[in-house]
Amino acid sequence: MSKNLVIVESPAKAKTIQKYLGKDFEVKSSFGHIRDLPKKGMGIDLATFSPDYEVSADKKKLVAELKAAVKKAEMVWLASDEDREGEAIAWHLADELKLKPENRKRIVFHEITKNAILKAIENPRDIDQNLVNAQQARRVLDRIVGFEMSPVLWKKIKPGLSAGRVQSVAVRLIVEREKEIREFVPKASFKLDGIFLNKTEQEISAKLKKDFEKEEDAEKFLEKAKTTEFKVLNVETRPGIRSASAPFTTSTLQQEASSRLGYNVTNTMRLAQRLYEEGYITYMRTDSVNLSQEAIEGAKKQITSEYGSEYSSPRNYTTKSASAQEAHEAIRPTDFAVKSISDVQLNRLYQLIYKRTLASQMANAKIEKTVIEIGNASLPQHFEAQGEVIIFDGFLKAYGIVKTEDDDEENNEKLLPKVSVGEILSYKKIIASEKFTRPSARYTEAGLVKKLEELGIGRPSTYAPTIQTIQNREYVDKREIDPHTREVVKMSLIKDKIKKEVLEEKFGGDKNKFVPTDIGEVVNDFLTDNFKEILDYGFTARVEESFDEIANGDQKWKEMMTNFYSKFHPRIEDVEENADRANGDRLLGVDPKTGKNVHARIGRFGAMIQIGETEDEEKPIFASLMTGQNIATISLAEALELFKLPFELDEFEGQGVSVGVGRFGPYVKWGETFISIPKGEDPLAVSQARAEEIINEKKKADAPIATYKGDPVTKGTGRFGPFIKYKDLFINVPKKYNFESLSQSDINELIDAKLEKEANRYIQQWEKEKISIENGRWGPFVKFGKAMFKIPKKKDDTKYEAEELKDVSLDEVKKWITDQDKNAFVEKKKPAAKKPAAKKTTAVKKPAAKKK
Length: 852
Description:
One of its GO terms (molecular function) is DNA topoisomerase type I (single strand cut, ATP-independent) activity. Keywords: DNA-binding, Isomerase, Magnesium, Metal-binding, Topoisomerase. By secondary structure, the protein is α+β, with helices and mostly antiparallel strands. It starts with a strand and ends with a helix.
């Protein structure tokens, strides 16, 4: 057995490090944290803020294996990542594995290379308790905020909601941006673009330096331009430079991977993690732009050999954020000699990191900017043409030119023809186009990361999980926003004639941007009304600063928690007791048919329209909102249209046909089959002919593609990918098969494999009782209906073997089930009893009100 045991977080990292260490070292993985706060309950003593950590059930076996390995080793090297989370993992390991200070060493490195690992072994240290406490403070504070605020949302809005210190602020940013867009009033102006010709018929594109607010002013200008002799009034050429950006931090990598590669934040971090663990890049969670001297030298050598010494310009960058602490270097390649790697997906991100780092050490690009002023003294405004010429490409040679979301659509990097002052130009055409101002853009993932970083909210490690959480909670989504249409005026001056046109333009549409959901807006408004301090951007940033102070040893974490909780908890109690319920209720107007009020609000199953009041003698009627509609913007007319659904059409092939909208969107119902109406299609516009088309398309898609032992086999695509269906079995089709042209032998192979698997699934089965003993991933278990139950140990405290379970009686299995759920076999003749139950609750409410 090895004398030295090295413990890291991930198996991939363990595998890479094992290559660099000799026989005297054994490298094992802890698979992340081995213990944490319990999943159920808060797990924190609120008097002392002491966390009650526990080893999760799925980690107990691993911890036992690590304890056994520790007993055989003379020295344990804790080699988790060098950020706060990594320090906490090392501390939990040391505590849970009962490691004595003399038998443990903490080592850190920001790249997984042989030199870095050996250097770390030579320079061990002890666990940094300040970093551990900073992580504990974040974990405990976020747990308290989540556990105390979430039940308030359950009580005041609806069950199942959640709140969080960082996630709620991220939702607030998205909601406020959406409200800003709704309230934005566009202003029109006329922009003029001209194309002029010099004596050799070369084109010069130019823009008028001032816009016109009114159409008549733009038209007057064009009338005057008809008879104007255009001249070159001025030519100015001035040198300029472009500098390379700093090497990547976590946030800038996420932003650039989004704009250049189209990767979302989660995908970027997953690939970066792999690149780090396989030794290709330095640690990927950092807010530092610093490079080591070794990296600067490595980049210089590569640049000089590949491009020439004139392209090399070694430099170091300073981090803007005073609290940068996660790692001590930017994200960079560990070896500049490795220009690409074999894995295509990994290589795309690696190339981005490689080129950005190399560019940061290269010379500035030299440009020459030319500005030509075109006009006449008789005109109130003059045109301006701009062009750029790259004299020396410098860092652009490696990184290229990057356009951002904010860049003008017009490309100014064009070469202008040589002209001289006083030269006469003729116009080819001058166009006056009506343009409207635009509101701020909705956030992309990269844009949201940038904003959170600007405000000092969260840290590199929190951006990806925060963005994932707010989508999982369905507070925001990336649904497609359909554009609106408006009329715009365009006037063209060509060959001394002005042509006026009224065109249509689309505006306001969006794809792949964050939009708040109805429930997201209601939750945000409730939290901002009742927990201003927690949702305040400044407060969230100040909390991050406190964590930094704890990490530096300048503040005690429990004191910080005491100070926070003394103000936070009384607010929770006050809101719970006194705040009104929130459902986003918006009165749209009065229904002309019934004279009753029409409301848009959040109901038990989401956003809905309600006609009538809850307390009315006659019960209100409800309709669900359709995709793309929301409480804040739906009109009375649109709301009333929803009550036309569902509607009946004529029978088709002997079965009833209707059109409706449900939980999963609009549908055509044919007999008992629900068929989704294609995205973007208005269900109210579905005619009999269109419904039959949709049904026929479904029939075609569901038509058998083959038979197996005389029974039909169909195919489809579901949430887990392509599948074939045989009887009641859904069988996933792996990528190795050509799904579009499955052969009979492919189908036989897939079904045979599934049937074999199903045969091995059941140890015993009682179909009538819906009870079975099945083989599972973690061993045998009992299934009753859809519920799963554990198999208890035998009387001698040993586990049942599969063979023994074949002889267990049904009565015994029923006893195992009732031991775990006393009501499992209680007769469920309760559907009819639900009505009295509902009456009871309403009847009880009235006396309760009288007592008060």
